[in-house]
């Protein structure tokens, strides 16, 4: 898996990658994967994880699903509120059982460097990943050739990249309907009359969706987008569960569960 001539260059930042490098035997021939001390520790301090359009149905059962912005309609699974804390990763770095783990996290420490506007891609690995070590039981290369570990990672990254491209298409087509707007997640503590806002986000405007012309609804249905949009709307019920999860972890009461950021 030599770096191909003219491979996509690594420019800018990659979410959750501290030191991304193009996977190549010259740099990584002696390295392999070992079990890290905290499997999901690398994503324990984030509030949202990017997901693909095909992940929306599964992820919407556990997390609020929102968009990155009105201009860039890429879906995110929200995993924390108020603080930069992932409420689904425990102190041992384990993801809560029976909760959907986004593909972006499952493929880590591998990722993809894709050519902007082109079709070329290259597999990337985070050189700072704790589980990337020498003399590992699961080497990346043997006798100068990729092992099953590397080949499986490449196939996963290829599949994920195809889904990412589908997600880009979803975002571009959805923008034409103008049904995504800035919104605010609110919570009214028991015994109070005034709602408190605890998260601003971009999401599906249900009233705008209902007001679409019949031919637009048919178009959404034929493109198989309509069930995804309703799954996102249904996922808004998970905001309340996130607050309850945060309160349980840090011992907040219902009265201060929104207004007490961690130090």
Task: Please outline what is shown here.
The chain is α+β, with helices and mostly antiparallel strands and 263 residues long.
Q: Would you count the extended β strands for me?
A: 13
Helical content band:
25-40%
From the N-terminal CA to the C-terminal CA, the straight-line distance is: 45 Å
Radius of gyration: 21 Å
Order of helices and strands: EHEEHEEHEEEEEEHEEHHHH
Q: Main beta sheet: strand number and arrangement?
A: 3 strands, antiparallel
Cα shape = flat
Query: What fraction of the residues are assigned to beta strands by DSSP?
Result: 15-25%
Tell me the structural class. Answer: alpha+beta
Low-confidence stretches: 1-8
Query: Strands of the biggest beta sheet: in what spatial order?
Result: 1-7-6
Average pLDDT across residues? 90
Helix segment tally: 8
Number of domains: 1
